[in-house]
UniProtKB/TrEMBL annotation:
UniProt-recorded name of the protein: Rve domain-containing protein
Domain of life of the organism encoding this protein: Eukaryota
Length: 97
């Protein structure tokens, strides 16, 4: 049916291209058993990767907190969003931390 529609619209016959199947180097040298072993090994290592990532995130959070805490002391004046963080009676831009 596609050929008829194409013929009616464009007044030309459809030529179906010949499929050329060339395989890549990766497909030629694929080894199913080795692939399954590698997948199992990666699944075993996922938990260790999660743990190291969590540790890195904790260390980063501590570094950020240490940096922030070194810049500000209790009682310093800091600029705040008055509507979001303070009650209505303390709505000033500069307030003690």
């Amino acid at each position: 049916m596609c050929e008829k529609n194409f013929l009616i619209v464009y007044d030309a016959k459809v030529d179906i291209p010949v499929k050329i199947s060339l395989t890549s180097h990766r497909m030629q040298h694929f080894n199913k058993e080795a692939n399954q072993k590698a997948l199992r090994l990666n699944l075993d290592l996922v938990d260790e990767l999660k743990e190291t990532t969590e540790i890195k995130n904790i260390v980063y959070a501590q570094q950020v907190a240490r940096y922030y805490n070194s810049k500000f002391q209790v009682g310093d004046l800091v600029l705040r969003n008055s509507k979001a963080s303070l009650p209505a009676f303390l709505c000033r831009k500069m307030a003690p931390s």
